[in-house]
Amino acid sequence: MLNSYKYSILALTVLFLTSCETEIDVNAEYKDVAIVYGLLNPNDSVHYIKVTKAFSGSGNANDMAANAESFNYPAGELDVKIDEYNSSDVFVKSFTLSRTVNEVPKDNGIFSSNTNVLYKFVEPNLKKDYIYKLNIHNTKLDKDITSETNLVNAPTLASQNELNKVKLFTATGQSLTHAFSIKPNKNSGRVKVNFVFSYTEHYTDTTITPVTKEIKISLGEQKTTSNEGGDILQFTLEGSNFLSAIQNEITANVPNLQRRRINNCTIEIIVAGIDLSTYIAVNEPSTSVNQNKPEFTNLTNALGVFSSRIKTYYSSPIATNPNGFNLDGSVNYHDDTLRKLLEMGLDFCNPRNNSVGLPFPPLQVRCEDVISNWSTFNP
Q1: Are residues 55 and 167 in the same domain?
Q2: Dihedral sign (CA 58, 61, 65, 67)
Q3: pTM over 0.85
């Protein structure tokens, strides 16, 4: 599913129409320019395509942008479908997309968010080796917009051991760099990686349900060198940056807070398809004196992009006792890193059945799911 919709081309169109009055005849005959954004995700069951149009007029561009009718096609004007072809380019089946209004909220911005029109189809089993061909027929203008895309295949970790015991500090507290090796798969254009620190807040007031929270730390993004997969891309996390992110995001002295339980860390990998990666690259800010940029679209008779993306998570499995509490050592941080977290003064409890080398006294408080009946099940 599309989590956000890009309106950059629309914004550029508005800017163009309002800043070049000496070069454009605003009373010239209107030409239909469709703008399409569609990103298929093989992990999703519901898929959306965004179709809008550029607009012109003699009034204020911001006022026109605030009117959804300026850039949305009316109901019944577009027939939108996606055809599925197998790896041999043989037709398999067709999906007819339905027009939805406000099914997915639109972020606030220059363009009206009162009416968010999307075209939708439901399919929980998109095939990673198949080809998906988009066809949009404008019944009023008798015009077809076409494009096609392969699906991004899920990436993998080149070494699972890099997530089993994440070590970001030495025994004496010095910061270390920890590397994660990511292996993109077929049809991948670029890879973005986030390190996800997870913790659960437990409260002294038992009527308050424990809340699990996450802090995402960006490890950057890289372009692939092969469309067929096989690259090994390294992303690194500095221990000092890790601590800074936690200190900036977590507040001490929260009312009714009893303990914060450290959970397994996770790697979030977001992969963009080849055409999406090209679209992003073309629209990146220019670093040269020459500000002229080539336009990119992989659609006929339209601007925008029709491509694929995928989001994948990797972690170490959490081993649990049949009676419900986590087994000793299940949290996938090295003891030296865990000790550094416990010494931050943020009410983290020790999720292991050992002191992880903490100074004595006092002994760091252990999490309740570790010490409850521990002697009975782990004498």
Answers
A1: no
A2: negative
A3: no
